[in-house]
């Protein structure tokens, strides 16, 4: 353990009253924007669950057995120290959602939580996993099927509870490739479906939406003429406010377009970005620094036409004049071939390389995840019944 880490752990032990008696800190395993996570041994854990029923005199005898047993079967936990800069409401939200999900398959359960003054720690079972960067390049399509079976099992449970995770990405899904099992962690940004909802045009029918746009002040007369944008200085409309929480590169188009009625479908998109990463063998796949950049990266793939339609879906206008972006974009199959250096063509312009049947099935599944319209995107439950994942169970 490096010196800084040791100092940090000693600091937690000395400032958080009583924690050292209950847990032996082993290492620091994660450091994020909102928390630090430590691996620790639970010193009170033992195999004999009924020891509170024991008589005083038996207890002493049992406690030495317990100590021996603990040495043989230590229980490890992850201690998530939530930064004091997080609002109490935010911390409560995370613990509350984890509590709701306590019996959900593939979701990391919450054992307990403690507060000392303004400091809160959540105690989770320690889950052994590998670093995504170490295994993602070596994953075969069969491995990928297993990965997503596990991830969508977790997401199905989360979504059944009408909870949006909002931050699906490899570091929040702790996966063990040999066991083909993972658990979903980090509900720090999660929210209940419907929180802060305000009407969004994506809930109208296509006809209603068109009628509304035709009457709107920035209706486009001609598809090719630049739209008349309102002057930002004189525009009196309230700026749109929508939840944008999440990690750049994993945000669904409706998050980028500030949809005010976001649904669990945003998590399915993020899972799609993971699948794209695995098939293209590039991590991170998207590099955008901000939301505008992110929209351009998507435009590069999906084309201007699709992005314009997607914007309109949420009552937004998107125009780009970057000549290198095509109107129709590229197929995901082509993107995967490009990224894996298999895009060579013969003299007649025919592609020499193509995807294996397995990969083709994966791309067909990917298309269902990276569907720009959230209403048409596959749900976690449907995903588990999709041929790509059904094959994993066999
Ligand atoms: P943050 O909000 O800081 O991202 P996370 O809950 O995502 O916090 O945890 C950060 C990291 O700590 C994870 O990416 C993972 O490496 C590690 N971690 C979190 N929970 C566990 C756990 N239960 N078992 C093992 N490692 C964990
Ligand atoms: Mg995290």
TrEMBL record:
It comes from the Eukaryota. The keyword rRNA-binding does not apply. SMART domains: S_TKc. GO terms for molecular function: ATP binding; protein serine/threonine kinase activity. Keywords: ATP-binding, Kinase, Nucleotide-binding, Serine/threonine-protein kinase, Transferase. Its EC number is 2.7.11.1. PROSITE patterns: PROTEIN_KINASE_DOM, PROTEIN_KINASE_ST. Residues 220-245 are annotated as: Disordered. Residues 23-389 form the Protein kinase domain. One of its GO terms (biological process) is mitotic DNA damage checkpoint signaling. This is non-specific serine/threonine protein kinase.
